[in-house]
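Backbones bend. Our protein:
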Amino acid sequence: MPTDQLSITLAALADPTRRAILARLAAGEASVTELAEPFAMSMPAISKHLKVLERAGLIARGRKAQWRPCSLQADPLKEVADWVEHYRNFWEHSFDRLDDYLREMKTEEKASGGSSCTAPTASTTRTRSLISKS
């Protein structure tokens, strides 16, 4: 059982039903009945999903007379966003290097008179090297 908050949050987000529940709660509070409406599953199954989300700190359950609203608690999502941001930077950097390389190839192609060759060249080797470093 994961103990760090990021792992707990990601485990809760792994299920599409739970993600759909969070998306609904992003629009505002809702009762368990309202949250269950779009799903073809029993109320106990919905309750289990809500317990997972609550344990992960992604929702809070309140009590207003007979109404028990659920609300989104987005703080744990900030840690997920920060973690994913690292990888977004990685891919952007990789794509920037690929753009630079493609510009270099176009320049070389124009300089050589536009002839293309199917045999591996130094450029092909460099491309493979750039991609494997990514």
